[in-house]
Design goal:
It contains 27 helices and 28 strands. It has 863 residues and is of the alpha+beta class. The chain folds into 6 domains: 116 residues, 2-Layer Sandwich (Herpes Virus-1); 113 residues, 2-Layer Sandwich (Herpes Virus-1); 212 residues, Alpha-Beta Complex (Cathepsin B, Chain A); 120 residues, Cysteine proteinases (Cathepsin B, Chain A, Alpha-Beta Complex); 39 residues, Helicase, Ruva Protein, domain 3; 34 residues, Ubiquitin-associated (UBA) domain (Helicase, Ruva Protein, domain 3). A hairpin with a 4-residue loop joins strand 9 and strand 10.
């Protein structure tokens, strides 16, 4: 690739219309204000259209706007011109032609191809013996499509020359820079090399953590010296906490802690209290192993499998991918593959299944003209546009065309016939949907089930008007909890999107075979002989369904009848049946050494599924309900003091913190409110308050305290007293939002509970669907009658109830030892036959391995 300035050092482009320099300059003068030179923060898209999968390799090439640096295929560039009025585009095209032959008939000796200057993410083989490539760039001025060939350094104005050079020299916005990742910018802690670790016998389990001081279960940090598990500050990483990890450091002086939940084979989030910043610990694996966490052996090879695991699972990979069978490639609409971007098969498998569902096809592809026409100015950052683009790419058949007959004959004669479509690259889609997500934005393998739920959440948040295609997965679960001591019960409902089916290992029908296999495997390992072929436990589906319906113990159950903790059991039933039922087999778990493990099972999943017997029945005759009393919120003394200290007299505001924030450019009154509502806890805490509240209309208005009567009366309101009116005081809202909840949730919860903090928190946890009812929130915010507001009820969750009879139409399978490694493929039943989607390869399936799947998709059979 040619570097900056190199392109324009070449002689004038051949084939361009010759004009005097003044004529070209005069042509560009009206458009000069719209031509920009890319800055360091600009994303320059020159590989892929914002609305389609056209690229410089496509027949029509690609048009890059010289103002926004967005790229458009020939079919979509006119839309951008009409919407924005931007007239100047750089047209990029890569031509492929057969190589010139030498006198003997062979290709000429290879030499560096100076005609290739585009830095493209492409699968084309630039070293092909039969073809050569040539890149072409030119400016196109709309609406007359006037073309100026590049390079044209002598005739173009200097600004245009610099802008064109910068665009052509820019790197892909998706390309990960090897040495410039944020991880490499973290300093190595000065305490890492000589860190003291106490030999106190502490072993950290792979789940079930809670703060040793306050029982919080989120934002937990493991101290690497003594193994204490304690909560972080409320504002760190946008998670709640009481700062006990920091207090422990101040008491004991142990400097390093690692955040639980971030540990992967590639590293973890480490914080140095002494150095007051995130750091790198080059000996993290050893430090974690001290507490029983085997980080390095979570996976051991490039694809996540240790050598022994690979040998064991060869048969599993062959069966699931249907290797060894000559599969017929499928082409046309609905048979387009997705290229693997490096451990992106989890995304590809889920999206293939999603866009096989008519409701998603109609919502996005069916509304393509409207969605594209009304897309924002930057369509690459719009969820609905990118969903529509992906859906059209998969369903149109435009990127899934079989080789033409002449090409087939030529390939067969050369004995090089390898029928395989190119598919599309979901790079732009993945970059957007994984944005700000620490796992999906990485190149590591992920859990397809977690991505499915992440996608559903994005669909919910970006619904198109009243249409929400994810409603087809939505159902209500009735949970019945019984106090074992009083036998009283409580019925609650929650929303869910998939059915998690436990693996009933004790019901295996081939136990003798499993025992023999395990003995042979251990003997082979001890004698360093080849391992035997993996044997799957054969589990009846009926046993898994029975395990799902059986009661389970409830940890930390608080009985309102006893007003104390007691033993409790929970059973779950379907309060409604969804249009499409997604079933996840719970194959994955963690060993005590934190190494992910997978249950190697074969389950006889039915093609026809009847779960009508799992329909919820509600309160039964003779059952007595538990009293409707919320458990007391236990707040440690130091946290109580902190909350009470938040309610300070306005005259006691820490002005030094106010000035620190004001110097950052925030309005002075907003800074005063931030410091007040965070209880004089410092500029850093107040800054987080500002970030949360800066979009509010009264953000910069002076601090006012409705009904303020001193710290004592305000404190009474916080801990349960009823306010004179039902308008929640700002100080209570600030306390709830500081725990990580949205402001609208806090306002509605307080209004529904007469401004009682404890009951408001319980209300939030018991109304998980509230966040989705945004219209209801707006209505509440605008309603002036407090009595009406307190009595109002949010509309019920949207469900599409019906029969519990289903038929299987798709399933996703996983190969490997854990969700952090291995490979996913998807099988979908289309037009009466099963089709396998294995990244970019789409073929007719001969032996779909329905017994080895991980996620199963069922559609309701109309009754």
């Amino acid at each position: 690739m040619q570097r900056r300035g190199a392109l324009f050092s070449m002689p004038g482009g051949s084939g361009s219309r010759k004009m005097a320099a003044g004529d070209i300059g005069e042509l560009l003068v009206p458009h000069m204000p719209t031509i920009r030179v890319p800055r360091s923060g600009d994303r320059v898209y020159k590989n892929e259209c914002a609305f389609s999968y056209d690229s410089p390799n496509s027949e029509g090439g690609l048009y890059v706007c010289m103002n926004t640096f967005l790229a458009f295929g020939r079919e979509h560039v006119e839309r951008h011109f009409r919407k924005t009025g931007q007239s100047v585009y750089m047209h990029l095209k890569r031509h492929m032609r057969e190589k010139v032959r030498g006198a003997s008939g062979g290709a000429l000796p290879k030499r560096r191809n100076s005609k290739i200057f585009l830095d493209l993410d492409t699968d084309d083989d630039l070293n092909s013996d039969d073809y050569e490539y040539e890149d072409e760039a030119k400016l196109v001025i709309f609406p007359d499509h006037y073309e100026i060939a590049l390079p044209n350094i002598e005739e173009l104005p200097a600004l245009v020359t610099i802008a064109c050079d910068a665009v052509l020299s820019s790197k892909s916005p998706y390309r990960k820079q090897d040495s410039d990742t944020w991880e490499s910018e973290l300093p190595v802690s000065k305490y890492a090399n000589d860190l003291t670790q106490l030999d106190n016998g502490v072993r950290i389990p792979p789940s079930g953590w809670k703060c040793a001081r306050c029982d919080l279960r989120e934002n937990l940090w493991l101290n690497l010296t003594d193994g204490s598990v304690l909560c972080g500050k409320w504002f760190f990483d946008s998670s709640g906490g009481n700062g006990h990890a920091l207090e422990h450091y101040r008491d004991m002086g142990y400097p390093l802690a690692v955040k639980l939940g971030t540990i992967t084979p590639d590293g973890a989030d480490v914080y140095s209290f002494q150095e007051e910043e995130p750091v790198l610990d080059p000996h993290l694996a050893k430090h974690l192993a001290h507490f029983g966490i085997d980080m390095l052996h979570m996976h051991g090879t490039e694809n996540g499998l240790r050598d022994n695991d690979m040998k064991l699972r060869v048969s599993e990979w062959e069966v699931i991918q249907e290797s060894g069978t000559k599969l017929k490639p499928m082409y046309g609409p609905g048979y387009t593959g997705l290229k693997n971007l490096g451990n992106s098969c989890y995304l590809s498998s889920v999206m293939q299944a999603i866009f096989s569902i008519p409701e998603f096809q109609r919502a996005y592809v069916g509304n393509l003209p409207r969605i594209f026409d009304y897309s924002p100015l930057d369509p690459t950052q719009d969820f609905n546009t990118q969903m529509t683009k992906l859906g059209h790419g998969l369903l149109s058949g435009q990127y899934s065309k079989p080789p033409v007959k002449s090409e087939l004959i030529e390939q067969v004669m050369k004995e090089e016939y390898k029928p395989q479509q190119n598919g599309i690259s979901p790079r732009m889609f993945k970059a957007f949907v994984s944005k700000s997500h620490p796992e999906f934005s990485s190149n590591r393998q992920q859990d397809a089930q977690e991505f499915f739920l992440h996608l559903v959440n994005l669909v919910e948040r970006n619904r198109i008007g009243s249409e929400n295609p994810s409603d087809v997965f939505r159902f209500l679960v009735e949970e019945r909890i019984q106090c074992c001591q009083t036998r009283k019960v409580r019925y609650t409902e929650r929303v869910d999107y998939l059915m998690q089916l436990p693996v009933a290992m004790e019901a295996a029908t081939n136990k003798d075979e499993l025992i023999a296999y395990e003995l042979t495997r251990r003997e082979a390992e001890a004698n360093r002989r080849p391992l035997p072929e993996l044997v799957h436990a054969k589990i009846p589906f009926s046993a898994c369904l029975q395990a799902f319906s059986e009661p389970e113990n409830v940890d930390d159950f608080w009985s309102s009848a006893l007003q104390a903790k007691s033993a409790g059991v929970k059973t779950s039933r379907f309060a409604s049946f969804p249009e499409y039922l997604v079933v996840q087999i719970k194959k994955f778990t963690f060993g005590l050494d934190w190494v992910p493990k997978k249950f190697d099972v074969s389950i006889d999943m039915p093609d026809l599924l009847d779960i009508n017997h799992l329909r919820a029945r509600g309160l039964q005759p003779g059952e007595e309900e538990l009293p409707d009393i919320s458990p007391p919120i236990v707040i440690p003394e130091d946290s109580k003091d902190r909350l009470m200290n938040q309610l300070i007299d306005p005259s006691d505001i820490d002005e030094s913190s106010v000035m620190q924030l004001a110097e950052m450019g925030f309005p002075l009154e907003a800074c005063r409110k931030a410091v007040y509502f965070t209880g004089n806890m410092g500029a850093e805490v107040a800054f987080n308050w500002i970030i949360v509240h800066m979009e509010e209309p009264d953000f910069a208005e002076p601090l006012t305290m409705p009904g303020y009567g001193g710290a004592a009366s305000a404190g009474a309101s916080v801990f349960g007293a009823t306010a004179l009116d039902n308008q929640p005081p700002e100080e209570i809202i600030a306390i709830i939002t500081s725990m990580g909840f949205q402001r609208n949730q806090a306002v509605q919860a307080l209004k529904a509970t007469n401004n009682n903090l404890e009951r408001a928190l319980d209300w939030i946890f018991s109304h998980p669907e509230f966040e989705e009812d945004s219209d209801f929130v707006i209505e509440l915010e605008n309603n002036a009658n407090a009595n009406i507001i307190s009595e109002a009820k949010p509309e019920g969750p949207r469900v599409k109830d019906g029969s519990g009879m289903y038929e299987l139409f798709a399933f996703i399978s996983h190969m490997g030892t854990s969700t952090m490694s291995g490979h996913y493929v998807c099988h979908i039943k289309k037009e009466g036959r099963w089709v396998i989607y294995n990244d970019h390869k789409v073929c007719a399936s001969e032996r779909p391995p329905k017994d080895l799947g991980y996620m199963y998709f069922y559609r309701r059979i109309p009754s």
